Amino acid sequence: GSWSGAWHEYTVWAVVAVVGVVALEVGVLHTGLLRTPAYWISMVISYGFMIGVNGWLTKLSAPIVVYDRGAITGWRFPWDIPVEDYLFAFALLTLAMLLWDAAGRRIQART
Q1: How far apart (Å, rounded) are the C-alpha atoms in residues 52 and 28?
Q2: Other C-beta atoms within 10 Å of 83: how many?
Q3: Most exposed: 15, 62, 86, 106, by fewest CB within 10 Å?
Q4: Contact (CB, 8 A) for 39 and 101
Q5: Average pLDDT by consecutive 10-residue portion of the chain (111 residues)?
Q6: What's the distance, CA 64 to chain centroid?
């Protein structure tokens, strides 16, 4: 986009997503999910599958998904995965689990 010359927009939005999800938990939901071993185990499992699939999709030798170089930092680990993908994965997976947990607590509170 037009912002890519000034800053890495995908990087910025990835960081904003992480900060937003953590702020939602700390400021509004208060589920305590981020302090549970089950959460971190599920993240390790999810990242394990993500690394395999995303590594194949973003490998620089034959990419299926191509990123605008101006939109990302260019830091890739492992298998050419942009670090921003890990941030977005954290935000998306965590948001889904937080909302699920919060909804379950509301349902339990009603019964």
Answers
A1: 34
A2: 14
A3: 62
A4: no
A5: 65 97 97 97 97 95 92 92 97 98 90 82
A6: 20
